User: What shape does this take?
Amino acid sequence: MTASTTSSTDTLSQDFVRFAVEAGVLRFGEFKTKAGRLSPYFFNAGLFNDGARLGRLAEFYAQRLIASGLEFDMLFGPAYKGITLAAAVAVELARRGRNVPFAYNRKEAKDHGEGGVLVGAPVQGRVLIIDDVISAGTSVRESIAMIQAAGATPCGVAIALDRQEKATENGNDAPYSAVQWVERQLGLRVCAIATLSDLLQYLQSTADPQLGTHFASVAAYRDRYGV
Assistant: This one.
């Protein structure tokens, strides 16, 4: 299941959005994005910052990956957020009977000890990149370069949330999202736990009247910047 085809009525997606809201990871208000847009919501995966939350997050990744049918031999976590995510997902997959190795990169090469920029299992075979979101595709491109330099094959990217909004190109809105760019230009399948459509579905159906008030602003944001 790719990010672009995740069903808005998917139970796993709805459970994840609820979990992210309750954990304070998905917040509503007015937030400035890297592209300079004023977004009515903000997703900060760094706030999955205790054992229970991280373990639950890993369950969502593992469930989505298993359901997707995506074939991979190992996981790769781009520094910094991807490191924790790849490790946690590897633990959860092993708990479910699928034991796969994982590796990650350093931001700066180490010139002593084992040296190099890659840490963990040897990077080989079909490598799945694990990250929180895809904002501009920069992290994915860097990961692909490191994976290919090691002689392995990048096979896909797993993310928590697909914002489904237009990417920016030289300061202008592009007709495609960062996720679509990764899929079309880099040829990698993107597997998202949830999307902006799932978030809107949650806000529209929630029994919490306070949360429901955010539906209009998020819908308006999608109308303006969505793909």
